[in-house]
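Database export, one record per block. Field names are fixed; values are copied verbatim from the stored entry.
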Amino acid sequence: MLEFTPQDHEARRYLLEQGEDGNEHLYVYDAETGECLHRGTDGKRWSVRPPALPPGSGPRLVLHHNHPSLNPPSAADTVMLLSEPDIRAIWVHAKDRSAFRITKSEERPSPDVVRYSEGRARRYFNDAFPNTELFTWAVRHASLLALRHVGLIGYDYTIAESLRISMGGALSRIEADAYMIYSDILTARDGGEM
């Protein structure tokens, strides 16, 4: 279950309001001071570039952005979290009001493991979802669950009731397949494939 700080609530309010224009928007704050460092958009539907990050003393920045789709954090979001030392967490607020948060773990995996996890999820769900948006959602969610099971990231979420209803029993399958992907990651990592 996601817990929201006052800054997280402010970021969510801003993103859900601004995101009605169909573009991605970004809200960045310093977790130590609570100060908003940036908010805005590039005016693009599928991406938003964060501002140059100020040098810090470890992971302090919390990035919130909206997805004009239903989708959880992307592989690019996860790679950014893992590769930028100043980022503590990345939140995604979807158009259906679902919310997702990824955080760093103690382990510092290679970005290759993120791409591997998402690739494995694509194989598991290739024929399962005729709707492209639900396919992308399933791939991302299962990949993030698998990375959490391995201990490579923290992943918390709140799924909107409307999405739970439209997914039906598929949520159980996604969670079960995430364990298969988790096993694949461990096997590949232990076998030196990553």
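Remark 1: The chain has six helices and six strands.
Remark 2: The longest strand covers residues 87-94.
End of record.
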